[in-house]
Design goal:
single chain; about 180 residues
Length: about 180
């Protein structure tokens, strides 16, 4: 989809390290990225960065970093970068006009990340992610990372934001390893 996101978090302590993302393209064997959000270096938002890119031995090399693929986009029916364009209120779907404030959800075959940010103010509002399944008409998330508090109110807001009903969402928090939130709200 021409959009990338990198999220770093410490799985053991369940702490957020940072995230960066934006649009990308390959030009002359270079990875060219237009940075739309960056908690590591917010001053990079709005800039274009270029890194050497190669794939060797099944590993992606970008600049001085090497990445290992963790899924192959399968089953992947929902894989892609999804920008929120509407919000459901009751039975009515309301369009959200495109502007500098964006909320995006990126899905691979088995993993997801959501990001909320503003390209004008360079403000980063939040992120979360984990694994998901989409079988039998149900979308189920297992949340591994959440920059915001991991409680049912946050999950309810996400459901409203994405106009989905989540069922059997396991929230892994430091205080309660088996916290389960059920929807819809």
């Amino acid at each position: 989809d021409g959009f990338y996101s990198l999220a770093a978090f410490d799985k053991e302590s369940k702490t957020f390290v940072g995230t960066q993302g934006g649009k990308w393209k390959i030009e002359n064997k270079q990875f060219v990225q237009s940075v739309e959000f960056d908690t590591f270096a917010p001053e990079k938002v709005g800039s274009e960065l270029t890194l050497a890119v190669s794939v060797k031995g099944g590993k992606l090399n970008l600049g001085d970093k090497t990445y290992t693929r963790i899924d192959n986009n399968k089953p992947g029916a929902l894989a892609g970068a999804w920008l929120i364009t509407g919000r459901k209120r009751g039975d009515e779907m309301r369009e959200i006009r495109e502007g500098p404030r964006k909320t995006m959800k990126i899905l691979s075959g088995t993993r997801f990340q959501w990001i909320a940010y503003n390209v004008e103010t360079k403000q980063f509002m939040g992120t979360g992610g984990g694994t998901y399944t989409s079988e039998g008409g149900q979308y189920v998330e297992n949340i591994d990372l959440d920059l915001q508090p991991t409680d049912s109110e946050m999950i309810r807001k996400l459901c409203e934001l994405y106009s989905v009903s989540l069922v059997n969402v396991r929230v892994n928090s430091i205080n309660d390893e088996q916290n389960v939130a059920l929807g819809p709200w």
